[in-house]
Amino acid sequence: MFCSTIRKRKLTTKKSDENEENQVKIAVSGKGGTGKTLVAGVLATFLAEKGFKVLAIDADPSPNLALTLGISPDEAKKIIPISENTQLIESKTKTSYPGVYRLSFSVDDIVKDFSVKSLYGVNLLVMGTVRSAGTGCLCPANAVVRALLQHLYVERDEAVVMDMEAGVEHLGRGTAKHVDAMLAVTDSSFKAMETAKKIYELSIEMGIKKLFLLGNKVADANEGMLIERFAKSNNISLLGLIPYDKQIIEADMRGKSPIEYARKSEGIEAIRQFGEKLIKQTT
Ligand SMILES: Nc1ncnc2c1ncn2[C@@H]1O[C@H](COP(=O)(O)OP(=O)(O)O)[C@@H](O)[C@H]1O
Ligand SMILES: [Mg+2]
């Protein structure tokens, strides 16, 4: 499809110093099934409990962060991902010329109009599919999502926790530079660690300042050792190891949020502790 643009969006790329302390900007990545959504949901809630104003972004093409955050399945079903909200996309980008769309539009109203608040005070925005910055895709939906991500990471005085696919390319360099910490979640499997390694390399290339590895579902000392060894040999800072936790599985089986169902469990408690560590290292 032929698309042309009428004007490039200009953005302020500097954070204002007085708001800096509210701006813990985190992205969580890793191979599917390693626990990204769990980590993102618990961290976002932890930050909200600490008094941060928090925005959680679900940027996985199969979004399910809402349930982890304690948003009911009925309410979660009603959420239309930003990239699939044709009415919104059109209102932002349509011009009177067919095939020509605008790239200069405001996105600051989107959070107010389209985010859903969780029981624990986290605002959730579901992005839908976010295409990679390098694919040259100029579709209107992508333009809105990219501008929105940039707004959330660069301009907004709010803590951000994003649950994303394995990979960081779709952030775009301008936005990636403002990610305070990329968390690569891995279990002890070879494939998950290889994915974490790719995330690490890409994050550096994209200009992300800090990357931490977070080991998850660690069932015994041997698994822990494998992850520690991997972190050491690749020079990646290991934020910590989250134990394999049956209560988290139980919460899942019952369709409950682990934050509610397994609040005091070892796994959830470990993520909170790593959240504390992360705040110290990034603010
Ligand atoms: N520490 C843990 N202990 C036990 N089960 C876990 C743990 N972390 C995640 N899980 C389970 O693993 C599955 C995948 O987790 P999820 O957060 O959805 O991964 P991802 O978002 O990376 O695909 C879920 O069923 C989740 O409940
Ligand atoms: Mg997930």
List the helices and strands and how they pair.
Elements: E1 4-5, E2 25-30, H1 36-49, E3 54-59, H2 65-68, H3 73-78, H4 86-93, E4 100-101, H5 108-114, E5 116-117, E6 122-126, H6 140-155, E7 159-164, H7 173-176, E8 181-186, H8 190-206, E9 211-218, H9 221-233, E10 237-243, H10 246-253, H11 258-261, H12 266-282
Parallel strand pairs: 1-4, 2-7, 2-8, 3-6, 3-7, 8-9, 9-10
Antiparallel strand pairs: 5-6
The structure holds adenosine-5'-diphosphate and magnesium ion.
The gyration radius over C-alpha positions equals 19 Å
What is the count of structural domains?
1
CATH class: Alpha Beta
* Average of per-residue pLDDT values: 88
**Which runs of at least 5 residues are low in confidence (pLDDT < 50)?**
1-19
> What CATH architecture would you give?
3-Layer(aba) Sandwich
Number of helices: 12
The succession of helices and strands, N to C, reads: EEHEHHHEHEEHEHEHEHEHHH
What structural category arises from helix and sheet content? alpha/beta
Describe what you observe in this structure.
- This protein is α/β, with parallel strands linked by helices and about 280 residues long.
- The protein has a single domain, classed as P-loop containing nucleotide triphosphate hydrolases (Rossmann fold, 3-Layer(aba) Sandwich).
- The protein is built from 12 helices and 10 strands.
- The strands form 2 sheets. Strands 5-6-3-7-2-8-9-10 form an 8-stranded mixed sheet, sandwiched between helices. A two-stranded parallel ribbon has the order 1-4.
- Helix 1 (about 35-50) crosses helix 12 (about 265-280) and helix 4 (about 85-95) crosses helix 6 (about 140-155).
- The longest helix has 17 residues, at about 190-205.
- It is globular, with a radius of gyration of 19 Å.
- The termini are far apart.
- The model is unreliable at about 1-20 (pLDDT under 50).
- Bound molecules: adenosine-5'-diphosphate and magnesium ion (MG).
- The site of adenosine-5'-diphosphate has 17 residues, from helix 1, strand 9 and helix 10.
- The site of magnesium ion has 5 residues, from helix 1.
